[in-house]
Description:
Strand order of the largest sheet: 3-2-1-4-5
Shape: globular
Number of helices: 6
Radius of gyration: 13 Å
Strand content: 25-35%
CATH topology: Nonspecific Lipid-transfer Protein, Chain A
Number of strands: 5
CATH architecture: 2-Layer Sandwich
Structural class: alpha+beta
Oligomer: single chain
Amino acid sequence: MDILELTEHAVELASKDEELREKTRDTLTTITMVLKDGEDTPIAISINRGELRFSRGWVEKPDFQFEISKENFTKLMIGKAHGLILMATKKLKMVKGSWGEINKIAGALSLIPKKGKEIAEKEGVKG
Length: 127
């Protein structure tokens, strides 16, 4: 399982979480993560009133856009790095959007890496 498959599965699992659905029920937003690994690999997570969706590729006019190396994204998704530390050390960079706005949903979205870690442990994914 590669990191994109793991992330897609983690988003699917997180989208079934009732607490996350409740916390994001009034949210309409799209977040693009650009994985930097010699070439840009964009992925997107969309929230539409509690429904989370994962997609590969560029999304027109995302509300938020982040850049991160594929290596650090892998570490984030398998539980070997924490998002706040990656941001503080400038390894996760916001290039579009505001911190005030993303903070409103950051807590809810932290469930995605938690699910990623569970999948990685079960599947033996290493980073």
